[in-house]
Amino acid sequence: MAKQAASNRSSARIVQLRKGATVEMVRLTCPDSAQALKIAESFGNVVVDSDGIRDDHERLLTESAASLSEGLGEKAMQIHLQRIVGAFVGSAHGAGQFYSRAVSEARDATAKASNDARDEDLDGPVGYDSAAQRKREFAADMGIQAHSLRMAAEGAIAAYEQVIGETWKPFDRPVENPGASLDRKAAAAQMDALG
């Protein structure tokens, strides 16, 4: 009984954190400028202005912060920008994960299509692309989108550093545990009943 009580006390002190997406996670999942250019050239997609996207988002957030500076204190500005940059980074990370899945599906479909013995993976009728080709094109589109969102996130991070003067880090919020307060209330009621 004493061991169980001791283990409950020690586990009650552990605060779990819900980890936010980091810029490193975005860079691992989203194509960089060189890869986005290669995708665009290989698939005939639009070549996006990576530096322009980054610069526009940096300017957008710094101008927004300047207009809010009279109404927000230093800490409020930091919290506000923390949330905005977190949204940009989270969006880019989600797009990067989706792009990674699309690439995996395109690789699988392309590998299956290269097997001459599989009838279901043969090219479609004349004038229609094969399923593998459609998956490759979809992955390419997702790559360009993920890259664009990466550049927007990097611009937002640069704006945060410029306005706040610190490197942006994701906010790790504690995981809410509503059962813990209920347990405390039940324990208090039980102790009250005991006298």
How is the secondary structure organized here?
Elements: H1 2-12, E1 17-18, H2 23-29, H3 33-43, H4 50-68, H5 74-113, H6 131-164, E2 173-174, H7 178-194
Antiparallel strand pairs: 1-2
Helix pairs in contact: 2-5, 2-6, 3-6, 4-6, 5-6
Describe this structure in words.
The model is unreliable at 6-13 (pLDDT under 50). The protein has helices spanning 2-12, 23-29, 33-43, 50-68, 74-113, 131-164, 178-194; strands at 17-18, 173-174. It is built from seven helices and two strands, in the order αβαααααβα. The longest helix is centred in the middle third of the chain and has 40 residues, at 74-113. A two-stranded antiparallel ribbon has the order 1-2. The protein has one domain. Helix 2 runs parallel beside helix 5, helix 4 (50-68) runs parallel beside helix 6 and helix 5 packs antiparallel against helix 6. It has 195 residues and is mainly α. 23% of the residues are buried.
Describe the strand arrangement of the main beta sheet, using strand numbers: 1-2
Low-confidence stretches: 6-13
Task: Determine the mean pLDDT.
Answer: 82
Class based on secondary structure composition and strand pairing: mainly alpha
Helix percent reads over 70%
Radius of gyration: 25 Å
Number of helices: 7
